[in-house]
Amino acid sequence: MENDNPINILEHFKEIKKRFLRYFIILGIFTLVSLVFFKKIIQIFIEPANKIILNSGAEGQIVFGKVTEAWGAAARTSIILGISLSIPFLLGEIIFFLRPGLRGKEKIYIYLLIPLCFIFFVIGALFSYFFVIPSALNFLITLGDDIAQPMINIGPLTSLMFSLMFWMGIIFQIPLIMFLLGSLKIISYKMLSKYRRWVILISFILGAIITPTVDPITQITVALPMILLFELGLILIKISEPDKKSWKFYLGIFVLFLIVILVVLGAIITRFDLYRMIELN
User: Fold this and answer.
1) Is the pTM of this model over 0.85?
2) Which of 20, 58, 131, 141 has a 20 to 30 A CA-CA distance from 256?
3) What would the pLDDT profile of 136-150 be if each residue is shown by its tens digit?
């Protein structure tokens, strides 16, 4: 394909099969390793709920009500973690498969956007773990702790956390999707900037749908990033609109994404340090 020579479609299928086989081997390895260390991993996931129970003074605990519930939570956690850890390898296989057929600007978009999709997904999941989930669990656990003792089943708890982390990871793809659609001339800055009010309204509606609580703090914690990510997407669309793009254009995109990543990671690290200070006290 480097010399533009046609290749039989069966050769493409063989190449896809070989790359998927390599990926599933890596997926299996990560899943098995996660299953071996599932107790330590589960502790990380249930730690926010444990801290809320401890800080609230309630005499509750996390339990499993069915014989198979603990195993189900362990299997679910291991599979999801295995998939998450193996995503960079899957993206790498996709990039190397598409590389021979890409030209010029297409290569830059693929090399830039595919890794950034994974990075932004991870940042969104971490944002959910350190900000959205503690707020949601704090509301759900303390809502009736003065009426009844909280006994939290580990299965629904891990399902709730995975759901929130997944959807926040998807939400953090907003600016990348907007940039791609803007580059393809499907949307424009002028078109979308008219709908800011609707975006704010929809963000709060989605915040209410995604989160299992009715408290405004959790909804704002979900809605505010969506609004900011939309504004970031508008900036990227505006940058992508000029027809002639020099190396400064791509450098500007890289710097912009780097700033956003550093700011979000800084907020997450700060939240983590606050957790450590609370534990020490």
Assistant:
1) no
2) 131
3) 787 777 776 666 677
